[in-house]
Prior knowledge:
Layout: H1 2-15, E1 26-32, H2 39-52, E2 57-63, H3 66-74, E3 82-83, H4 87-95, H5 118-125, H6 134-137, E4 138-151, E5 175-178, H7 181-192, H8 194-198, H9 204-207, H10 213-224, E6 230-234, H11 238-243, E7 249-253, H12 254-266, E8 271-274, E9 280-288, H13 296-306, H14 309-319, E10 322-323, H15 328-334, E11 342-343, H16 346-349, E12 356-357, H17 366-369, E13 372-374, H18 382-393, H19 399-419
Parallel strand pairs: 1-2, 1-3, 5-6, 5-7, 9-13
Antiparallel strand pairs: 4-7, 4-8, 4-9, 4-10, 11-12
Helix pairs in contact: 2-13, 7-10, 10-18
Amino acid sequence: MKRILTAIAAVMLVSGTLGAIDREHTLKVYNWADYIDESLIGEFEQWYEQQTGEPVKIVYQLFDINEIMLSKIELGHEDYDVVCPSEYIIERMLRADLLLPIDKDFGETPNYLDNISPYIVHKFNQIDGSGKNANDYSVGYMWGTVGFLYNTKHATREEVSTWKTLQDPKWAGKLFMKDAFRDIYTSLRVALNRDKIDAGLMDTEKICFDASDEDIAQVEDFLNTFKDNVSGWEADFGKERMTQEKAWLNVTWSGDAQWAMDEAEAVGVGLDFVVPEEGSIVWFDGWVIPKYAKNVKAARYFINFLCKPENALRNMEEIGYVSCVGGPEILEAMSDSTSFEKEDASYFFGPDATAVAINPVMYPSASIIDRCGMMHDSGDRTENLLAMWSRVKGDNAGTLTYVIIAVAVIALVAGYLLSKKKKSHGRRRR
């Protein structure tokens, strides 16, 4: 309810109902729904004044789709101070010169940005910012993988450890696919070319940029081999179908999978998650400061505040996703020898983590990560990818129809969310 009231207040402030905003002492944050421990918002306001001697009040607003957030900044020149886009949108914003560099000098306040895992820094180096290094303009927030959430009563881990399992008719009517064309397309580009990658004929990172007609056709052909098995193309409800045993297999994000596994365990349903052996992708969300921001100083301090290990842990506990913050404090808190086998998580935590008992859904072993690529902005090929996705799903409506439907649905969902008191514990990343 606090989140809802904050969002309403923000809208009223923006519309002028409550009068003009003192932007010098206001921080406008634009984030996904249910993507932060909201008690940290008030704590930041106090912490910021302690650190700087200046008061600040947060206006906290929500978005559900990356492109809606982007359009408000790119076309509407909205003066958000800090927002949380996904990696391909960070890429697009860098290319469009929509981001300000993040100054990491906080004076006497410690620089907690250095707590970001070296692995995350390395992956952000791979974001194509047309000459700009994404690590200068963004700070990783949450990350995860794409894989299979499966019902252990109806499948073994070995059975679902390959993308080819999707072709098995046993899944007919029991398979849900994440309706996220970039995630699925890029994952399959890696998987379908595994033999060539292993032979040194193709490079994992390079093929993640590819979206030629031939590349798209390769993925489309594979999707068509099992599309009759698909019961639904879902944005957020697949994990709940899994916990209810209305579905047995869900191609989804690791964060949704972990939520579903926890919920299912409470009702006696066995679920597990695996990244297919051919490979997949890792995804990332990060904090950025848009070029139209009015309170850059508070924005920098807000990002810095969220990178404190204790705050990163609180966010993970609250939302179920995995923080980009690494370091010994996180490793110690996440290790559990009574629940997990030892894995090599040295890529994320450093050389002391070559054999640590840690949740493999949240922190896959190094051998799995080595077989994963990363999504990128598809630029002017996006329309071609969308057309392929629509063909596979059997969509016949034109683009304008989808725009009209999307606007109507967003309005309905907004009204519904305002009437909800229970968190959904999930979100629509794409």
